[in-house]
Amino acid sequence: MAHRRKAPKPRTAPRKGRPLEGSRSTASRVLELLYFVARSARPTKLEEISAATGIPKPTALRILQSLTETNALLRDVGPKSYSPGTRLTDLAISALVNSPLRAARHLILQDLVDQIGETCNFTTLDGSEVTYIDRVECRWPLRLQLQPGSRVPLHCTSSGKIYLSEMSARQRRRILRVPLKRFTPRTIVDPKALEIELRQVRKRRYSTDNEGFLTGLISVAVPVMDRMQRVFATVAVHAPSARLSLRDAQAYIPLLRDAAERLAQLYGKSAGVRIASTHRNLNVEDEFEFSRAK
After folding, report:
1. CA 39, CA 137: separation in Å to the nearest integer?
2. Structural domain harbouring 39
3. Does the pTM exceed 0.70?
4. Among candidate residues 84, 112, 135, the one where a domain is terminated
5. For residues 226 and 260, what is the distance between their CA atoms, to the nearest angstrom?
6. Across the beta sheet with 81-84, what order do the strands follow?
7. Are both 146 and 200 inside the same structural domain?
């Protein structure tokens, strides 16, 4: 007698919005986990990462341990939480420098230099330093040459002060509690005096440097915002003070803001870039602490 074939069991339909765990490769899980941590405005815990990515906690923990061992992620002291590490930020910056968008980005900076007549640059935050992503030099013989990838301090540069002004009060205190290096007689090294200037920067949405980094050099910077209205880069102009006064340089702020908006739109069309850095946005608690300092 012929045996009847058993009817196949119906497949369980996957939950909407999340693929079956077995259908994802290890590489895709790693990328999803890195993407979530990089986009977070604060250190993230294992439970949050697992819930957001759908990766089981034991699997997520193994990936996190591997990523911290290679410095792609950092494990914060105290609560088990994770934030971008040096290798992840280096990767993000390299991706920006060598991005397919660099030609369009460079043209925007070139147009800005043509209008102002002085050197302009595009920067991002990397830990406790500013990193130059792109730069267009002016044609004057007297100029400062910094190649993409060059790093400058936060506390005495116009771009750096924008990043400091946007940090949480807690992160800003961690940076400013270290003795600030004096580069010129005009470098602000008193944290309280710097806090006053940072409040002004945050209010007016632009920053200046009046020979605080290099004697004879002034600069003005404006923020570049992502789609969530978070600062992910800056556009700045700098020039010798003998050729352009700080007051005259501030007259170019509308042009800087126009270039910043064009750059924001350029990156916004490219999947809304979010730089993996130690930058943190102000939360309710930090905003309160910042207000009390006023």
Report:
1. 32
2. 23-84
3. no
4. 84
5. 10
6. 44-45, 81-84, 73-75
7. yes
